[in-house]
Write a structure and sequence with these properties.
By secondary structure, the chain is of the alpha/beta class. Helix content is 39%, strand content 16%. The strands form five sheets. It has an eight-stranded parallel β-barrel with strand order 14-15-16-17-18-20-22-23, surrounded by four helices.
């Protein structure tokens, strides 16, 4: 199974989703971008009652994921939520001068490319610009305003106009739409379209309509658009004005409509009288419908319309001049046709999706290519690594047993006896760094007394072969007689860790690497919630997670008191949990489950429950464990890389590094059977892709590196590079995987 190159992931962040030019722009991009190359999602941060759901519904119908989680969050929580979300994207587009976006970017260590999209001059002048890779203004005046506050980076402010999809405009809709509006073919229908916002000066349209209606009863008028949720009283004022001017029978308020192209086809004249707007998207829509336009000379309108050629300009705040222009167009069908066709040509060449979408594609590709790549820092002796399965836990007791059988995978695979040979054999495959483990239950069989015969041969073998080892101190197992829920567990484990550090310091001069507690989050789920691992509890997962974090912190303190050079690796699975489209209401729960993967690291770093002693200094190296079943549908099965909702490993690596900014490596990965070669090729390709975006991945550890038998059923697990030993025979190499590793090494 070889996945296709994933599309570039783009997140549009809106302050709010209403009905406007930027919302239309996103909808048209979603309709026209090649989905094999670009994946577009939307998150909206704020909602007021009575905001129209039209844009949301249109985007969802196009297959766009619209995330409204922030609607229920405070500003501070929204910032935190965005910080966790945006790092998973290649490009973020901030619309409407979103206040949350810069605080969110401040919190992450690797930022995606940021485009600010501005529809107003005031937006372009507002807010900081130091994280803004490009500012896109929809017209020249907005671009110039952004450039004025991007000193030294003026060329990073560019102009990409709003667009229209010409295929949506069908003149054959005219008759049916006029009939539905009760407008005769002999009537002249003059329209206005937009959100009812005072800066759009809709009252001037009504005053002009009253002047025209006084001497031309065949003129009809229509206002399309709903109230602005922030200024709802304005809509009521407009209705009152229309009634006061005697327009009740000739002017109709239609409210928000999703069929704007069809409505425009029914118009004869379009009017737009704003002041302080950007580039009115609706003027381009009117041009697509071949309408003559009466407009004020406002910012982008000056670029869209050539006065007397493709429209008529009128002064601001002058209803009489508007009425005069309306009369001129009412009296001349030829003038209406000439102006409308000229504006249509301007739209086709400058504002059509065909003209605008390629500009967005070039910009996005350009930004992705500009991201600085990174390489390993040399933390480990080798990029390719091998991990020896070292679980020592007790499995659940079977019928007739009082206590479950204890695993000892190191002994089971013969690694304890043949460590030197194993390390030497891995060196032949360019693996000079390994993960390995101590068996606490053997070392401290008697409380307070340490017997090192199970560990010293392995430690000395690593020294003799020049192998760098990351030593697991607790890999699911602990000595009998310790209550893992007690304070004594923390004390005993810290004492054990300090004793290990003394032995290692005595035997080796190299900088030691330790993994205090393996997979805190997974261990807590398996042992505290699912009842699968010891201590076989249910409903106590977070309690166990806190206890394991406390033990890990205490162990690190004990080790550092012996050897301040010590480095610490904290390994846990990285996961992705998606919602079944048939159960969208589970989104928050699924996301909560996904976020729980970070709790072990957050506890260690003091980002969660700092009262247990966590601090950033303890979160030294982040080890991410990734297998084929690390992604699943909430309440459903795992998903593999051929599933449309599968998240590329590169994205998971990027967002994990962005969250912590710590040295990071693949601490475990592998798969059983014949898929082993293609799996490592996939993982390596994704790691390289992550590194191209700036993630300094330090290595990839194949885990387990030696075949073993199943924990529960003792079945053969053929998931390693090397075979299990039998009757003293050397370990055999699984050549297809070895060949794949050689190919990786040669890249």
């Amino acid at each position: 199974m070889i996945p296709l190159e994933p599309p570039i992931r783009i997140l549009f962040v809106f302050a709010w989703l209403v009905v406007g030019g930027e919302e239309t722009e996103v909808r048209l991009l979603a309709s026209n971008l090649d989905r094999a190359r670009f994946k577009l999602d939307v998150v909206a941060c704020f909602r007021k009652p009575n905001m129209p759901a039209q844009t949301h519904e249109q985007l969802v119908a196009l297959g766009v994921d619209v995330d409204t989680t922030p609607y229920e969050l405070s500003f501070e929580d929204t910032v935190s939520y965005l910080a966790s979300k945006i790092s998973g994207y290649d490009v973020v587009v901030s619309c409407q001068n979103v206040a949350d976006i810069y605080p969110a970017l401040e919190r992450i260590h690797l930022r995606p490319a940021l485009i600010e999209h501005g529809g107003l001059v005031s937006e372009a002048l507002a807010g900081p610009k130091h994280f803004t890779n490009r500012y896109v203004g929809v017209c020249r005046s907005i671009r110039d305003a952004a450039a004025s506050v991007m000193v030294g980076r003026e060329n990073d402010a560019i102009e990409i106009p709003s667009m229209v999809n010409l295929s949506e405009f069908d003149p054959f809709d005219r008759s049916a739409m006029r009939a539905s509006l009760g407008v005769a073919e002999s009537d002249v229908l003059i329209g206005w379209v937009g959100r009812l916002d005072p800066k759009k000066n809709v009252e001037d349209f009504i005053e002009a309509a009253a002047i025209v209606h006084a001497d031309n009863i065949s003129a009809r008028f229509v206002i399309v658009g709903g109230p602005d949720a922030f200024i709802p009283d304005y809509a009521m004022q407009l209705r009152s004005l229309a009634a006061a001017r005697g327009l009740t029978g000739s002017l109709t308020f239609l409210g928000d409509r999703a069929d704007i192209p069809a409505l425009l086809s029914a118009f004869d004249i379009f009017t737009w009288l704003s002041k302080g707007e950007g580039m009115p998207h609706v003027i381009a829509e009117a041009g697509a419908a071949r309408l003559p336009v009466i407009a004020t000379p406002d910012n982008g309108a000056l670029q869209q319309i050539d006065d007397g050629v493709s429209g008529l300009f009128v002064p601001y705040g002058d209803p009489a001049a508007v009425a005069s222009a309306m009369r001129m167009l009412i009296s001349s069908t030829d003038l209406r046709r000439r102006l409308g066709h000229a504006l249509r040509w301007k739209v086709e060449t400058h504002y059509s999706a065909t003209a605008v979408v390629p500009q967005w594609e070039r910009l996005i590709q350009e930004l992705v290519s500009e991201r600085a790549s990174s390489n390993p820092t040399g933390l480990f002796q080798s990029f390719l690594q091998g991990g020896f399965e070292c679980s020592t836990h007790r499995i659940r007791a079977r019928a007739g047993e009082t206590v479950g059988r204890r695993l000892d995978v190191i002994a089971q695979t013969g690694h304890d006896v043949h460590a030197a040979n194993d390390y030497s054999q891995l060196a032949q495959h360019s693996m000079h760094t390994v993960r390995d483990g101590l068996r606490w239950h053997l070392i401290e069989a008697v409380p307070g007394q340490y017997e090192w015969s199970s560990f010293l041969p392995m430690l000395r073998a690593s020294n003799e072969t020049g192998t760098q080892v990351i030593w697991d101190l607790l890999h699911y197992g602990w000595p009998d007689g310790i209550d893992i829920w007690s304070q004594d567990f923390v004390v005993r484990f810290a004492r054990f860790a300090g004793a290990v550090a003394r032995i290692v310091a005595r035997e080796s001069g190299s900088v030691p690497f330790y993994s205090p507690v393996n997979e805190i989050s997974f261990f807590s789920w398996g042992g505290g919630d699912a009842g699968y691992l010891n201590p076989f509890a249910n409903g106590r997962g977070f309690e166990l997670k806190v206890q394991l974090a406390r033990a890990s912190i205490a162990a690190m303190d004990a080790i550092v008191s012996v050897d301040p050079r010590a480095r610490f690796v904290h390994c846990d699975p990285v996961i992705h949990v998606v919602t079944d489209p048939a159960r969208p209401w589970e989104r928050r729960v699924a996301e909560g489950h996904r976020q729980s993967q970070f709790q072990g690291w957050d506890l260690i770093a003091g980002r969660m429950w700092p009262q247990i002693g966590g601090a950033e200094k303890y979160l030294d190296i982040v080890g991410v464990n990734y297998y084929h079943n690390n992604q699943w549908i909430h309440g459903g099965p795992p998903i593999d890389m051929d599933h449309p909702r599968y998240k590329p490993l590169r994205s998971i690596l990027i967002e994990t590094y962005a969250r912590y900014g710590k040295p990071i490596f693949i601490a475990e990965t592998g798969i059983e059977g014949e898929r082993r070669p293609s799996w490592i090729a996939y993982v390596y390709a994704e790691v390289r892709a992550a590194m191209k975006t700036g993630v300094p991945v330090e290595g990839i550890c194949l885990y387990p590196i030696v075949n073993h038998v199943g924990w529960d059923d003792e079945r053969p697990c053929d998931n390693g590079l090397l075979s299990m030993r039998s009757e003293g025979k050397e370990r055999q190499v699984y050549e297809p995987l070895a060949h794949a590793l050689r190919a990786v090494k040669q890249e």
